[in-house]
């Protein structure tokens, strides 16, 4: 039987991810053709900087290069649009235009899908095309495919993970080298890990985009980024990283989506994880995701969370899926058979407010008078928060420095722990801001 015609790809963006996709498609073209059942060819590229794009594409024949993204999105010779330019304004228009012209879309743009996924997926369904986005979540790790296909038998109970490489790098450097947040961020930027606007990384927004997509796939709910609780690591003190270590924990920025009877917890925040937990071993810019299914139990996925070719790996996997889809359907249009958010219809699950979330908590209370440590459990008890452990921490060699009461609580309502932190901060002996971080044991 003759091989099907190549899948024709138009790309918007040929920066870090686009160039990686181009390189890997060329380098592995025989293996990719063997797996896809036909070739995958880039036929058009839109770029802001044409000279730089021409340098990336050097030696390529038959690739139309333009500075007009809409031309690529609506190009009659393109079967699939690969959108790797990022952003949510123009990217939304390009993707919707491609869909309206009957083209499948592959994107690594988590912001676009977390914020406009409802509109984009509905348009794709109307036009019978796919919107694939494996590269948008924990890049190299095939977690979307795992949730949508491999774990499809399960009632998913929770998904939790380290899904931002930049902040994990920063936290690793704060722990390993005792750096402050600012020093570690400067290193992350020098190595090119951070987003163009590092606020997206350090304030937890990027992780929340990804957690939103994971929650939608895990629980069959719409993308509800606006309802996510998002805290970053900008105000994290090096002292708390060190104190957590002393207590047997590591600080990680976690994205957590948990199914409860009344709805879904969807939250991103720094948390203490037991030092012996697998997530505590995930260092540098690596990502890892844990999924708890009722039948599978806990499964874990680990890999590079950022970078040119790790993202290309996911983008091309989506392209191969589309190439295979069209191979199976030589007559008429090939419609995607796997729903983009895992379920054929979304349930209207609410996102629960963080005040009602129940976790353990770490509290660090700086006290001018060491004798005041005894007041700490009394205040906590008064707020309905039970103490699991209490340790006195004095700064070595500095008798004038405050003594810190380091508390780990039993599971308590977030609202109660917050009230307790405020009450502790108002104690006459309190000598500075009370630090509060959630503790996640992820059993
Ligand atoms: N800035 C992102 C990160 C890149 O650090 O994880 C990949 O989404």
TrEMBL record:
The similarity comment for this entry is:
Belongs to the homoserine dehydrogenase family.
InterPro entries, per database record: Asp/hSer_DH_NAD-bd, HDH, HDH_cat, HDH_CS, NAD(P)-bd_dom_sf
Q: Which GO terms describe its biological process?
A: methionine biosynthetic process; threonine biosynthetic process
Pfam families, sorted: Homoserine_dh, NAD_binding_3
- Using the record's annotation, list all stretches that form the Homoserine dehydrogenase catalytic domain: 142-320
Q: Supply the name of the protein.
A: Homoserine dehydrogenase
Q: Which residues take part in binding L-homoserine?
A: 195
A Gene Ontology molecular function term of the record? NADP binding
The answer to whether UniProt assigns keyword Amino-acid biosynthesis to this entry is yes
Domain (Aspartate/homoserine dehydrogenase NAD-binding) spans 13-134
**Residues involved in NADPH binding:** 110
Please name the NCBIfam families in this protein's record.
PRK06349.1
Catalytic residues identified in the record:
210
- Residues annotated as binding NADP(+) are 12-19
Which superkingdom heads the taxonomic lineage of this protein's source?
Answer: Bacteria
Keywords of this entry: Amino-acid biosynthesis, Methionine biosynthesis, NADP, Oxidoreductase, Threonine biosynthesis
**Pathway connected to this protein:** Amino-acid biosynthesis; L-threonine biosynthesis; L-threonine from L-aspartate: step 3/5; Amino-acid biosynthesis; L-methionine biosynthesis via de novo pathway; L-homoserine from L-aspartate: step 3/3
List the Gene3D superfamilies hit by this protein, alphabetically.
Answer: 3.30.70.260, Dihydrodipicolinate Reductase, domain 2 (3.30.360.10), NAD(P)-binding Rossmann-like Domain (3.40.50.720)
Q: What is its EC number?
A: 1.1.1.3
